[in-house]
């Protein structure tokens, strides 16, 4: 255990409990948990992909964590899905859940998204389609120069990321450098579907308090625009002041296109 203050970086290897994280933030999908932010982002992701323009062969998800929620709405619209994650224990959890003996099946998230997209289908159809399209769960450290530790990736048609780019950087300047690193992996004309938090300083995973970057909407938008992205849509939902699990001001979903 390092110095005092919220946990960060390598402490994700040792202190981040995947089951506690999923139980707190993803087990109940209604307005009673963090002000309804998770149903909000699932609905917005669904709207963005269902509109039909965000598609392609290859999708990269940055910082998938122990749950693939950020890619579920994208599954019917891409062919190859590359998941990436910093912590080895989260990678193992995700791998066991999708391909091994893990008990986690994310059924409530798949059901929620299936109800939004095509109620006539069983949720397991989307789950099986995801499993069939995942090409790997790769290491990722956004704070390193070589963020994928030697894995060679050609450019992607779509990049998704959710609640990760605000977990990694220690300050706003570093956030700007991460945006530059990530933007190198997307094709011209490619799409970014990004879920993030604003004005946050911590979130709890069980008893463990994790650090989050306090960043504003203007700062987020300016960094992506500077890297050649045009913002197609931005939607936000306010946090709930009564919530004790995290202190975020808003959660947002941003869709951008890489123009230059
Ligand atoms: C709040 S979780 C988000 C998980 C998931 N994407 C979601 O939407 O729920 C934050 C994620 O950021 C990852 N992370 C922390 N530091 C990182 C770093 N330096 N590079 C890449 N990912 C990092 C953690 O391992 C964790 O999976």
Automatic annotation (TrEMBL):
GO biological process: one example: methylation
Alphabetized UniProt keyword annotations: Methyltransferase, S-adenosyl-L-methionine, Transferase
SUPFAM superfamilies, A to Z: S-adenosyl-L-methionine-dependent methyltransferases
Superkingdom to which the source organism belongs: Eukaryota
Single GO MF annotation: N-methyltransferase activity
Entry GO CC: cytosol
Entry-linked PROSITE patterns: SAM_MT_NNMT_PNMT_TEMT
Family statement: Belongs to the class I-like SAM-binding methyltransferase superfamily. NNMT/PNMT/TEMT family.
Identification of the protein by name: Uncharacterized protein
Organism placement in taxonomy: Eukaryota, Metazoa, Spiralia, Lophotrochozoa, Mollusca
